[in-house]
Sequence to fold (247 residues):
Amino acid sequence: MTSNITLEVFRYNPENDDEPSFQSYAVPCNKDWVILDALNYIKDNLDGTLSFRWSCRMGVCGSCGMMINGTPVLTCAKFLKDYLPGPIRIEPMEHFPVVKDLIIEMSDFVDKLKRVKPYIIRKEEQPLSEGEYLQTPAQLAAYKQYSMCINCMLCYSACPVYGLEPEFLGPAAIALGQRYNLDSRDQGKKEREDVISQDDGIWQCTFVGECSAVCPKDVDPAGAIQRYKVESTTNWWKSVLMPWSDK
Ligand code: SF4
Ligand code: FES
Fold:
């Protein structure tokens, strides 16, 4: 027999509600259910007004992030049974405005992502007749870890600096900038430097490291930021001591 587990779910509709509240639902604790399954059970069987985002149910799309008992996680990657005996508290991701219930407004992250130009920039494209841009396994390995990011924004919810200073460019945007900076096919490092090296970029980070701790894809955005700090400082000293050298 399957026992029940209680979910305490954040509810808020800014158009009608003066303030948020929590609503409790008892759901079957099936051993192969993840938290997202329980939310879909509520939506389908108990309360169709509950709103939340999801798509792939397999840790790829990055859209099902929420706070579970105070920690940002992908709800399709966490089993209900691991939270027994409950209750489980489910809230929208911290540090983002709430659109409705568990859905957050993500345009701030999207704007920041655009600013780091997360795509390959070429000064001159080579003619198609010359074929693909080839890379060695070592050149691929140089950026592969940072390319695993699924834009889930858990790292922003975990980052106390972003919570206090919303202007901070933030972990994933910087890691994705690095992903392209380290790609042997890219020539846009200088353009990204103007965004990433600013006060609101890497220098806001105090290396708390929570971003890397919660990242479901082991991107290690904290490592990307510290690495960029070292590089940026080295480049600055080079420009002072050897102004004739090319960075
Ligand atoms: S760095 Fe990790 S936690 Fe941050 S958005 Fe990318 S996958 Fe998500
Ligand atoms: S539903 Fe796509 S990552 Fe969870």
About this structure: Residues 42 and 48 are 7 Å apart (CA to CA). The chain has two domains: 4-104, 107-121+136-241. The radius of gyration is 21 Å. The first helix runs from residue 35 to 46.
